[in-house]
């Protein structure tokens, strides 16, 4: 009995096939009902609708009808072809019908009573011809510009939506966002089953697209705003929640590439598929530590993907060679791949997607993001955190061990800087430089490392022409945790310096 | 005004509006275009594909195929004045 009720309460869904959107709608759009998709110009609503139709035709055996009131069909096909959709071939296969209705008020004289039966007949004809299950009306509000009698228009639209519902058509109806309402003509009054809102915002000259399920009658749905991307693969929505926190946490450990650092991490190194943050001020050797890890992973035959946000690959290879690490060798063997990009070249979401692509194609065991701080300058703190959460989830699901380097400005307190991202990290290693006896010495310590006993010592850290060495501090070296000194790491008071004072 | 008027009336079945539109059209043509017009009635219920060519949305729609340019008048054609304006048989503003 109760089971029966459960089955009835969840309405049927028509999957959109848009990655992520079906997650936040818990399966797709309400089947047999119209969904309103509203957004400003260029917000991607037409593309969303077309993706819904194309995926329906290709993946779910649901032919579709695209009735457009906007552009002409040829232009439209061309526009979407750039996104990888070949409407013509779908039309040829009788999986799609594109009908174009152009209404120009200046061409039309209105006299006496009329209705929109012409639209109904054409739609009905198209639906019957290919047995369509999906319809997109893009953008039906345009009719308000073409016809003077809005009374007739409203009554007819109401009739149209009811008619589609009666026929069991799953429809996407796009609309231009209004000033006060979701749509200029208040279409949300007629379409009450589901409303999706698209938004295109520019923050510090970098644009971010967002999608939100405003309403979904008879179904639960993600209520947040989710960033989405439009690229050569169409639309991708990136919900954090789609991955939940279900990834496996392997017990396997991987060497850091340095026995001395492994020793600080319970003798075994990092956990596989964990996240590691290497932070410190400029020139402390973060990249060298990362390179050391990459070197040892490649030596084990694992694949590494190195994302560079500051240096070029050749610059990095040259610099690392001076510390005795030959990365070129692994590039040649196909075990190491670089992906260098300027952080401000695109928005966070595009970066995220590019990383997704790169990781998906190369399928690495280890990923390095160097430095993550440059990427953090691209968006607001909340955005960066959300983006990192998603990228980390993704890495973990794939079992990728991820290393992030983070540059701390010399005026900041080391531990405070990364507060926004540190909670996402399983292991956090700090490297600092202190002046002592007119010499800059490096220190290293493990601030945290989840799930393993780790050293609480501050140890000396040297970069030599044959690699890194980490040694316990001798007598006369700072015994207290030096990095929490409020004056900052540069003027970290070593006991010897204090004595001189 | 020596050209012939090729007119097309789009309807969907014998609805009261369609019937009204046709009789209004006949009357106007007889009065103003005697001997130089032809009317073709297209019932979209029988031939739904034909609605595409002339971009038919509202019904009834009267399309003036000739003389060019193509003109469209929608509604039951009950306002003769407006129909004449729409067919270019009368200037848009009476004074000009």
Radius of gyration of chain B: 13 Å
Count of DSSP E strands of chain A? 23
What is the helix tally of chain A? 18
- Which residues of chain A sit in consecutive blocks of at least 5 with pLDDT less than 50? 1-8, 478-501
| Strand fraction of chain A | 25-35%
Q: Give the overall pLDDT of chain B as a whole number.
A: 88
The overall pLDDT of chain A, averaged over residues, is: 83
Gyration radius of chain A (Cα, Å) is 29 Å
Structural class of chain A: alpha/beta
Main beta sheet of chain B: 4 strands, mixed
What is the helix fraction of residues of chain A, given as a range? 25-40%
Helix and strand arrangement:
The complex is a heterodimer of chains A (501) and B (96).
Chain A: H1 2-9, E1 13-14, H2 21-24, E2 29-30, E3 34-39, H3 45-59, E4 64-68, H4 73-81, H5 87-92, E5 96-100, E6 108-110, H6 117-130, E7 134-138, H7 142-146, H8 150-166, E8 170-176, E9 194-203, E10 206-216, E11 225-231, E12 234-237, E13 253-254, H9 259-264, E14 270-271, E15 275-280, H10 286-299, E16 304-308, H11 313-321, H12 328-332, E17 336-340, H13 348-362, E18 366-370, H14 372-376, H15 381-398, E19 401-407, H16 414-417, H17 419-422, E20 427-436, E21 439-449, E22 458-464, E23 467-472, H18 495-500
Parallel strand pairs in A: 3-8, 3-9, 4-5, 4-7, 7-8, 15-19, 15-20, 16-17, 16-18, 18-19
Antiparallel strand pairs in A: 1-2, 9-10, 10-11, 11-12, 13-14, 20-21, 21-22, 22-23
Chain B: E1 5-11, H1 16-32, E2 37-43, E3 61-66, E4 71-74, H2 80-86
């Amino acid at each position: 009995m109760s089971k029966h009720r459960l089955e009835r309460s969840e309405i049927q869904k028509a999957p959109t096939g848009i990655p992520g959107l079906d997650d936040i709608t818990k399966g797709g759009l309400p089947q047999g009902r119209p969904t309103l998709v509203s957004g400003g110009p260029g917000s991607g609503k037409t593309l969303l609708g077309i993706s819904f139709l194309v995926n329906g035709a290709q993946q779910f055996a649901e032919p579709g009808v695209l009735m457009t009131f906007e552009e002409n069909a040829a232009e439209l096909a061309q526009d979407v072809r750039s996104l990888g959709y070949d409407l013509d071939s779908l039309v040829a296969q009788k999986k799609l019908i594109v009908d174009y209705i152009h209404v120009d008020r200046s061409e039309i004289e209105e006299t006496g009573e009329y209705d929109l039966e012409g639209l109904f007949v054409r739609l009905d004809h198209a639906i019957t011809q290919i047995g369509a299950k999906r319809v997109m009306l893009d953008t039906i509000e345009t009719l308000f510009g073409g016809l003077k009698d809005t009374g007739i228009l409203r009554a007819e639209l109401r009739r149209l939506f009811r008619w589609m519902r009666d026929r069991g058509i799953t429809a996407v109806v796009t609309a231009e966002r209004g000033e006060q309402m979701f749509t200029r003509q208040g279409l949300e009054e007629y379409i009450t089953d589901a409303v999706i809102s698209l938004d295109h915002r520019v923050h510090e000259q970098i644009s971010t697209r967002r999608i939100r399920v405003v309403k979904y009658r008879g179904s639960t749905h993600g209520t947040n705003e989710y960033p989405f991307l439009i690229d050569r693969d169409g639309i991708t929505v990136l919900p954090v929640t789609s991955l939940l926190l279900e990834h496996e946490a392997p017990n396997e450990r991987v060497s850091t590439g340095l026995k001395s650092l492994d020793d600080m991490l319970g003798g075994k190194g990092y956990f596989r598929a964990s996240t590691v943050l290497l932070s410190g001020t400029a020139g402390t050797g973060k990249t060298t530590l990362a390179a050391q890890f990459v070197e040892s992973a490649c030596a084990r035959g694992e694949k590494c993907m190195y994302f560079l946000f500051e240096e070029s690959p050749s610059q990095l290879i040259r610099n690392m060679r001076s510390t005795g690490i030959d990365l070129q060798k692994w590039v040649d063997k196909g075990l190491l791949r670089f992906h260098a990009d300027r952080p401000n070249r695109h928005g966070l979401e595009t970066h995220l997607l590019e990383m997704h692509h790169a990781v998906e194609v190369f399928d690495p065991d280890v990923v390095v993001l160097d430095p993550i701080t440059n990427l953090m300058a691209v968006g607001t703190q909340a955005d960066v955190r959300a983006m990192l959460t998603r990228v980390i989830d993704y890495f973990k699901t794939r079992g990728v061990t991820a290393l992030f380097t983070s540059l701390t400005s010399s005026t900041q307190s080391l531990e405070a800087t990364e507060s926004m991202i540190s909670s996402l990290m399983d292991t956090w290693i700090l490297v600092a430089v202190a002046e002592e006896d007119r010499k800059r010495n490096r220190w290293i310590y493990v601030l945290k490392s989840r799930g393993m006993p780790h050293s609480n010592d501050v140890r000396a850290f040297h970069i030599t022409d044959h690699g890194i060495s980490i040694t316990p501090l001798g007598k006369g070296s700072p015994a207290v945790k030096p990095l929490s000194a409020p004056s900052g790491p540069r003027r970290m008071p070593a006991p010897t310096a204090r004595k001189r004072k | 005004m020596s050209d012939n008027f090729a007119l097309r009336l789009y309807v969907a079945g014998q609805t009261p509006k369609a019937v009204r539109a046709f009789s209004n059209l006949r009357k106007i043509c007889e009065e103003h275009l005697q001997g130089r017009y032809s009317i073709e009635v297209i019932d979209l219920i029988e031939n739904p594909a034909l609605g595409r060519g002339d971009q038919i949305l509202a019904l009834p729609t009267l399309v003036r195929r000739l003389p060019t340019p193509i003109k469209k008048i929608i509604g039951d054609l009950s306002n003769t004045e407006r129909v004449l304006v729409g067919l270019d048989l009368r200037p848009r503003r009476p004074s000009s």
